[in-house]
Task: inverse folding
């Protein structure tokens, strides 16, 4: 057994060497041999998952990650690779929960915090993908509903026109009168369709011409939506990181020029809540704003 | 990163709306912009003239002030003002390291310069203009102007 573990370790090293030289297929083979020698080492599976990620063998990546997580629960790398593969096969919901697991494990761990930025970027990407899927579905459904309603309007128009023809044939009305009635029916129909389409367009944020973040959520220094707003003594709020950058150079309130020290700043929790809510309600475009 | 994102947003805002007498000339990159300003009041010193401003931004804009100077052109003179040297260098507290605040922006600087000209009645250059123009080799932001004269 010990001999096998040693052999597995050597094969892993060989695989790592291939991986560093971007020889992912050879690396994958080495890791597979290593797993044959020792199937109880979770790291062998994550290493192979990473190689398979490069080879774009998504389903195999997922299998390796699940196997690795079975062997080791607090497995940041496995969740991180898993999230990427799930994203690739267009499963953003699963990808997001995997990415969030990876982020939690990363923040909790003392040694791996330098991965936090990379993982939080992946979390953001998953969130955006999730929003896009939802949005696509919503637009498709709206399209169907609108089509159905327009069809109903057309049906009722045809019925009305048919009635007019019938009354004309039964000599209940003259040709001129019938022509006027027909025109009236057409006009009402066109107006109704137009109103319906306008109503749909207005209720659909995708069709709103302007996508703007309200000024009260925007940091007056970076002009971007705030994530962690702090309030100064005169009541104005700024993004913490940028205001501190300014205060380090000049300890003055940007608006009033009164003395302002970093210790004077207070978090603006209600505004932070408002920013978060706005981000959640508008996720799709806000990421590129 | 900070500067380019913020400048792009300033540009969007200015394209949507600009105060009268201020025009964008060129904003080809996010390092240097040219703006034109005119004085709207009937001040005889500045009647029928247009002045061109050159803005240079550092990577740390808006934490750091931009460098702003008037530039001369065949039909764009340097405006007369006791705080504007004949080479276009401007002595204005908000452009100075101490006076700058990151809530200022290109538009607010243009407006400040407009009103600085509007309120002026003296057809003068700062004291020592000749020597300053001849011998100054410093960049505007490195010059320590003395703001002892707040009457203009």
Result:
């Amino acid at each position: 057994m010990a001999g096998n573990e040693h052999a597995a370790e050597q094969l892993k090293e060989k695989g790592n060497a291939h991986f560093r030289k971007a020889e992912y297929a050879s690396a994958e083979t080495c890791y597979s041999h290593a797993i044959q020698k020792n199937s109880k080492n979770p790291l062998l599976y994550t290493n192979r998952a990473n190689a398979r990620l490069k080879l774009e063998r998504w389903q195999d990546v997922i299998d390796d990650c699940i196997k690795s997580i079975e062997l080791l629960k607090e497995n940041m790398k496995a969740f991180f690779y898993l999230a990427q593969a799930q994203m690739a096969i267009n499963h953003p919901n699963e990808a997001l929960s995997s990415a969030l697991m990876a982020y939690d494990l990363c923040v909790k761990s003392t040694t791996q915090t330098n991965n936090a930025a990379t993982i939080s970027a992946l979390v953001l990407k998953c969130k955006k993908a999730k929003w896009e899927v939802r949005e696509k579905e919503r637009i498709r459904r709206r399209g169907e509903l609108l089509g159905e309603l327009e069809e109903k309007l057309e049906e009722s128009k045809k019925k009305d026109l048919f009635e007019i023809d019938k009354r004309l044939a039964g000599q209940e009305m003259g040709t001129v009168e019938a022509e006027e009635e027909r025109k009236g029916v057409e006009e009402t129909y066109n107006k109704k369709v137009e109103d319906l389409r306008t109503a749909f367009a207005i209720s659909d944020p995708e069709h709103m011409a302007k996508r703007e973040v309200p000024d009260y959520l925007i940091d007056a220094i970076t002009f971007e939506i705030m994530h962690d707003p702090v309030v100064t003594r005169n009541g104005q709020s700024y993004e913490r990181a940028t205001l501190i950058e300014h205060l380090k150079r000049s300890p003055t309130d940007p608006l009033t020029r009164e003395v302002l020290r970093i210790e004077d700043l207070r978090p603006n929790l209600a505004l932070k809540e408002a920013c978060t809510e706005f981000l959640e309600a508008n996720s799709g475009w806000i990421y590129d704003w | 990163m900070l500067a380019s994102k913020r400048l792009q947003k300033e540009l969007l805002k200015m394209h949507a709306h600009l105060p009268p007498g201020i025009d964008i000339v060129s904003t080809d990159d996010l390092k240097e912009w040219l703006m034109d300003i005119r004085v709207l009041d009937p001040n005889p010193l500045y009647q029928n003239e247009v002045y061109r401003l050159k803005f240079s931004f550092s990577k740390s804009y808006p934490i750091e002030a931009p460098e702003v100077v008037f530039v001369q052109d065949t039909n764009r003179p340097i405006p007369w003002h006791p705080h504007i040297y004949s080479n276009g260098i401007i002595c204005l507290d908000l452009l100075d390291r101490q006076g700058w605040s990151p809530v200022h922006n290109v538009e607010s600087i243009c407006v400040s310069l407009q009103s600085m000209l509007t309120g002026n009645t003296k057809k003068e250059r700062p004291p020592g203009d000749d020597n300053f123009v001849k011998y100054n080799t410093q960049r505007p932001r490195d010059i320590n102007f003395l703001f002892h004269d707040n009457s203009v």
